[in-house]
Amino acid sequence: LVVIGLVLAVNAVLALVYWVSIPFARGLPVWFIETNTALVLLFVLGGCWVESTRVRDKGGPHVAELAGARPAQPGGHDELSRREQRFVNVVQEMAIASGQRPPPSAWVLPRDDAINALAAGWSEDDAVVAVTRGALERLTRAELQGVVAHEFSHIVHGDTRLNMRLVGLVWGLQMIWGLGLSLWSTDERGRRGAGALFGLGLMAVGSLGWLAGRLLQAAVSRQREFLADASAVKFSRHIDGLGGALRKIADQQARRIKGLASAHTSSLAHLLLSSDVAPRSGGWRQWLATHPPLADRLSRLYGRSFEADEVLLAADRLAMEDADAMAQPVALMAPAVAGNAPGPGRAELAEAAASPALRSWQSGV
Fold first, then answer.
1. Alpha-carbon distance 328 to 341, whole Å?
2. For residue 109, how many other CB atoms are within 10 A of its CB?
3. Integer Cα distance of 235 and 99 in angstroms
């Protein structure tokens, strides 16, 4: 139905553009409708087939490259290399805790200051977990554990296989909109080319495909995020890790920190830890949101409602020493004090202390 709607919309809009550009023209050129129809089918169906083939053949690393990621580069002496070494260590720890063997490859998105992450892959052999530079610089070790554990849940529960198929479908649906955006965009000097008007028309009709792709992403991924949040607590054995990361993401959203720099972000939105926008519960934008509101996710994690001023946690850049000092092993500190930020209770701490995964992790440290 979406493809049929796109065919009709493209023909109608391009015919209107043609008559506006050539007001004295009689009728439409020969093969006008047939050519437009063939191009729509080529872009949508062909785009779905091409991208699905690439995703199937290249797996998780291909999706990570689309997002702008590269393999982690630990072992150096500079600060970024040390942060990436810590990330690689956390991936190994969460692989033990979740029973995921072999562990997925660790990738980093070095251009992105926003806190975010993704997991992709068909199986254990090609699975990847990627985090942004902002996550490495602004999260404590415990918070980074929570984020990585969330992504491990998507791998363990098979979400990544479904999401990989979804990448190809959304890619094809949004190709016309993407082509129009490229034609409408300005060059280095801020000037638009001769095809800008056609680009604007393609964006108008391609928005139907963009909308369909977004709704498809929202329908598939939203409930899986709640499961991944719960599993992150199970794997990391504490709540404040992922909880603190989500609160810092809320702070960045409130300050309108720009999301991923990749041009393919829209097609990969359902893979991310959090969306770039912060829709309100019940608002019309919630229908297009690929993730539940952060306040809802926090409420499910802690078992209580959150006020607006409680959600935000300053996402300042942390020095390596400060980040490690603030992250004692799986947050086994004193129970939360009434009136302070929410923390694990005594039962949760006892369960964490008795966890085989924790004992294994502590012995490894």
1. 17
2. 25
3. 9
Q: Any bridge partners for residue 119, and if so which? A: 129
**CA 117 remoteness from chain centre:** 6
Query: Can you list the pairs that 211-214 forms with residues at least 24 positions away whose Cβ atoms lie under 8 Å?
Result: 211/288, 212/2, 212/173, 213/169, 213/170, 213/173, 213/174, 213/266, 213/267, 214/266, 214/269, 214/288, 214/290
Residues 6 or more apart whose Cβ sits within 8 Å of residue 200: 180, 183, 184
Tokens encoding 80: 């970024």
Distance CA 15, CA 11 (A): 6
pTM of the model: 0.74
Q: How far apart are the first and last CA of the chain?
A: 55
Question: What is the rounded CA–CA span in Å between residue 23 and residue 137?
Answer: 58
How far is residue 45 from each of residues 4, 125, 220, measured CA to CA in Å? 12, 29, 21
Helix (H) or strand (E) holding 289, with range, is none
Distance CA 140, CA 322 (A): 8
Q: Tens digit of pLDDT for each residue in 318-341?
A: 887 766 766 544 433 333 333 334
In DSSP terms, 107 is beta-bridged to 71, 130
Distances (CA, A) of 7 to 2, 43, 106, 177, 206: 9, 11, 42, 13, 10
Distance CA 150, CA 238 (A): 12
Provide the pLDDT for residue 196.
Answer: 81
Query: Nearest to residue 175, comparing CAs of 34, 288, 49?
Result: 49
Give the tens place of pLDDT for each residue, 14-72: 888 888 888 787 788 889 999 989 988 887 888 888 888 888 888 999 999 989 999 99
Task: Please tell me the distance from the alpha carbon of residue 137 to that of residue 343, in angstroms, as a whole number.
Answer: 23
Number of Cβ within 10 Å of residue 152's Cβ equals 27
* Statement: residue 155 has pLDDT above 50: yes
Neighbours of 336 (CB within 10 A): 18
Decide: 112 and 261 in contact? Cβ < 8 Å: yes
3-state helix, strand, coil in the chain (%, to 5): 60, 5, 35
Active site residues: 151
